[in-house]
Amino acid sequence: MAPKAARPNKASGGAQKQSAGNDPVRLAYANSNISPRESSGRPGTPHRYFDSSHLVSIGTGGVGLSTGDEVLDTGCKAELSKEANSDSQVMFADQVVHRHVNGLCVVTAGETLKKICSSSSPSLSVSSVEFLKEECENQSVGGKKKKHKKAKFARNKHSPKRGDEEKGSANPGDSLAIVKLSDGRKFEFHCCVLGTILEVNRRLLEGTGGNLLVTDPLLDGFLCVILPTGPFPLPRRSIEM
Q1: S-S: 229 plus which of 40, 160, 195, 239, CB 3.0-4.6 Å?
Q2: Average pLDDT over residues 179-192
Q3: How far is residue 174 CA from its own chain's centroid?
Q4: Does residue 233 have a cis peptide bond before it, meaning omega lies within 30 degrees of 0?
Q5: Domain ranges of the chain
Q6: Other CB atoms within 10 Å distance of the CB of residue 178
Q7: Cβ pair 64, 34 in contact under 8 A
Q8: CA distances from 207 to 53, 59, 202, 204 (A)
C-alpha cells in the first residue's frame, strides 16, 4: 500500500504563500509611483502633524513602491503631463499624501497649482472644484457617525453613476476631483490610496474655498481623508515573491 502524501506543515512554512502577482493590494498600486517626500524642517509645515509624507504619481504600467530609503521607479516623471479626452486637455500632476500616526491618509493636490498660480498672472485662481467620488456614509475621521448629510457634489459626465460602485470606495488610480483654473485649464487628481474615503474637504466647494489648493494645498487645502486597505505605502516585502 502506497504511503499517503504528507500534509504541509504551516508552522514550518509548508503552506504556500500567496504570490505577489496575485496580491490584490499590490495590484491596486501597480500603476503608482510612490516616493518619500523630504521634510522642509520649517515650523508649521506638514511634517509636524504627520508620520510621513509621500509624493505620488499615477502612470501607466510598471510598479512604483516606496521602500523606505529606496524607491522603485516606474519611469513616471515628477512633472506636469497631459492626456486628451473627448472635450479638452486635462492635466495631471504629482500629488502628496500624508500618513497620520493613526494610519489614516490625507490626500492632497500637491504643490503644482500653487507653483502655476504664483508664476503666472496675479489674477489666476481656482474657479471650480468638482468631486467625482463620494465619501462613505455614516463615517467620519474619528470613527463617529456624521451629524450632517453628505456634501452636495457637483456632478458631470465624469461622475460615477449611483449604484455603479460602493460609496466611499477608492482605488489609487480612481479620479477624485477635477479642478478648473480661471484661465480654463483643468487638472484631474486621483485618490492615490486604496481604501475607504471617510471625508472630503467641503471647504473647497464653498465660495472661493477652492483657492486653498493654491494658498495651503498640503494642509487646509487637502482633498480627502482615506482609511487605507492594507499598508500605505507598501513595504518591500509586499513586492518580493
Answers
A1: 195
A2: 95
A3: 8
A4: yes
A5: 79-228
A6: 19
A7: yes
A8: 29, 33, 11, 8
The residue with cell 471650480 is: 128
The position carrying cell 479642478 is 179
Residue pLDDT, tens place only, 156-180: 333 344 444 467 899 999 999 999 9
pLDDT tens per residue across span 41-62: 554 556 667 889 999 999 843 3
Lookup: cell for 111: 504643490
Model pTM greater than 0.85?
Answer: no
How sure is the predictor about 133, in pLDDT bands with cuts at 50, 70 and 90?
Answer: very high
Greatest alpha-carbon pair distance for the chain in Å reads: 88
C-alpha cell at 11: 508552522
Do residues 175 and 158 touch, judged by C-beta distance below 8 A?
yes
Helix (H) or strand (E) holding 200: strand 195-200
Strands 224-228 and 186-190: unpaired
Residue 84 has pLDDT above 60, yes or no: no
Dig out the grid coordinates for 114 from the structure. Answer: 500653487
Rounded Cα distance between 39 and 31, Å, is 25
Q: Model confidence over 203-215: pLDDT tens digits? A: 999 988 999 999 9
Q: H or E segment at 27? A: helix 24-28
Domain 79-228 class in CATH:
mainly beta
User: Under DSSP, is residue 149 helix (H, G, I), strand (E, B) or coil?
Assistant: coil
pLDDT of residue 61: 38
